[in-house]
Amino acid sequence: MKLNNLYTLGGISALSILGACSSAKEEKPLNIIYIMTDDHTQQAMGCYGYDYANTPNLDRIANEGVIFTNSYVANSLSGPSRACMLTGKHSHANGFTNNIDSYFDGSQQTFPKLLQNAGYQTAIIGKWHLHSVPTGFDHWEILNGQGEYFNPQFITNGDTTVCDGYVTNLITDKSIAWLEENKDNEKPFCLLVHHKAIHRNWMADTCNLDAYEDVVFPLPDNFYDDYEGRVAAKEQEMDIKTNDMDLIYDLKMYRPGLESRLRQNYITDDGKHGLYGTMNEEQRKVWDAHYTPIINDFYASNLKGKELAEWKYQRYMKDYMKTVKSLDDNVGRLLAYLEENDLLENTLIVYTSDQGFYMGEHGWFDKRFMYNESFSTPLIMRMPNGYERRGEISDLVQNIDYAPTFLDIAGADIPEDIQGKSMLPILKSENNTMERKALYYHFYEYPAEHAVKKHYGIYDGRYKLIHFYDDIDVWELYDRATDPKEMTNLYNNPEYKDIIIKLKQELKELQIEYNDPILEQYPL
Ligand code: SGN
Ligand code: CA
After folding, report:
1. Which residue range is the domain that position 510 belongs to?
2. What is the pLDDT of residues 397-434, one digit of tens each?
3. Which residue has a Cα nearest atom 10 of ligand 1?
4. Atom from ligand 1 closest to the CA of residue 365
5. Which residues line ligand 1 (CB under 6 A)?
6. How far is the CA of 196 from the centre of ligand 1 (A)?
7. What is the DSSP letter of 42?
8. CA distances from 379 to 45, 423, 497 (A)
9. How far apart are CA 41 and CA 380, in angstroms?
């Protein structure tokens, strides 16, 4: 018997049939597949209008559903984003503010637990990164920490096992295996597929190494940003042009005897080369056959200055996009499984990332800032039967909205203390809106790698007001209608005085609504 085919008739979801003759309560709730990648950004997806990105399977999700053009995170970093997503609450409320010393309190309320109470079977496979043991899942199989690209360790029920293969394939294999094992279960399911890709240092599967080698990527026009009027932006350490982006670790220009600045990533505890330590001989052979001529050319050409900076940008883009290729292929594999098993029409498929990423804008890689490329995150959904909404959705949405949305879809109550809002109304009809004036953001991880200072801010769909605090006290204002690349800080421009007063008032209201204690430290 196929998974849930009790509820399907000849591939047509019973939802639509039941919908005509029974109340919503009697309908079988939808299955949910939530695919979250790591550091995948809108600028690396064809469906977001970036033609150099060949992502047919992701584009299919968007084409058969909806694409959010104003999708954001609450705190642009892995662990914090995951905690926001699971709880539907901002970082100060769920307790996981940063990757360094936060620990997720697994006894707190999360949407998987509430879905279990509502009769769902739940599972998570892939990156977890919250340090505590997952709770609220009938099945979990997680990567150890950030996980490795090749032959990674997975942890389940206290056992750590090395699995042979490339991480994106393995996470997909395990996800499909779980679906297959549970296909006779009468409960609806919620499966979280959490990929490691495309996290630094962007290592592609060996079968995809040739992809994108011939593509010349367009250099962002603010690649040589001088950060005038933006102190925090000037002091970051995520610059492609400098040693922040390492030639050996990030761009794989390794030769025996060469040292990487990022030594901690370079030699593993057992003395193996950190970059390639987990690869087997066969993987290493294919890898070396690809990179050796590139390495030889690079050292022979002795590039300097702008030439070197732009070469680094091109290599970064190539490695990143090659890594996306495997992700897209594997999303295709999962879609094919669902299709073959009559599950497409009774499953909501959500694709997102833990945050966006800089692809050379402002000269950067990494994330953290409330500036657009890393504050935003991709969000596309394939719509099942009964959900008529299609195309672009421009409402302001944030990753704290996922939990209440899934609970709403399941027909479960949304607890009062959840801070996000359900997206179900806008998924149902284009006549509905999110009824939200502005979004709140707060980033905490400083001092830390990449040196992005602590900041919080508000975005109302046009204006963005940010306060960088702690060891500085600097405000920034952007008008995204006239300055979408956020290059001109208008905070000290007298013409914007009234707008600033209004935004500060709204920021204060959000801090009160969400109960962020930062308001006591920096009263507005
Ligand atoms: C690692 C990376 C950083 C990255 C953080 C957080 N360095 O520390 O570049 O910002 O993860 O990323 S590395 O040298 O180890 O690659 S997150 O997505 O997990 O938050
Ligand atoms: Ca991430």
Report:
1. 441-521
2. 999 999 999 999 999 999 999 999 999 999 999 999 99
3. 366
4. 9
5. 38-39, 77-78, 99, 146, 199-201, 262, 265, 354, 366, 449-450
6. 11
7. G
8. 11, 12, 34
9. 12
DSSP letter for 25, please: G
Percentage of residues in the chain having pLDDT higher than 70: 92
* Domain total of the chain: 2
pLDDT at res. 264 = 57
Do 54 and 177 lie in one domain? The reply is yes
pLDDT for residue 11 is more than 60? no
Specify whether 410 is located in the same domain as 492. Answer: no
Is residue 182 situated within a structural domain? yes
pLDDT score, position 184: 82
Q: What gap in Å lies between CA 320 and CA 311, rounded to an integer?
A: 14
Mean pLDDT calculated for residue range 164-191: 96
425 in the same domain as 454? no
Q: Which of 321, 325, 327 is nearest to 351 (CA)?
A: 327
Model confidence, pTM? 0.94
CATH number at residue 486: 3.30.1120.10
Examine the domain organization and report whether 353 and 501 are in the same domain: no
Q: What pLDDT does residue 266 have?
A: 62
472 alpha carbon to ligand 2 midpoint, in Å? 26
**What distance in angstroms lies between residue 486's CA and the mean position of ligand 1's atoms?**
24
Q: Are residues 334 and 359 in the same domain?
A: yes
User: 125 and 51 in one domain?
Assistant: yes
CA distance 168 to 425: 33
pLDDT band at 183 (very low <50, low <70, confident <90, very high): confident
Residues 329, 184: one domain? yes
Using the CB atoms, write b or e for 123-145: b if 16+ within 10 Å. bbbbbbbbeeebbbbbbbbbbee
Domain boundary among 430, 452, 470: 430
The verdict on 407 and 461 lying in the same domain is: no
**Does 349 map to a domain?**
yes
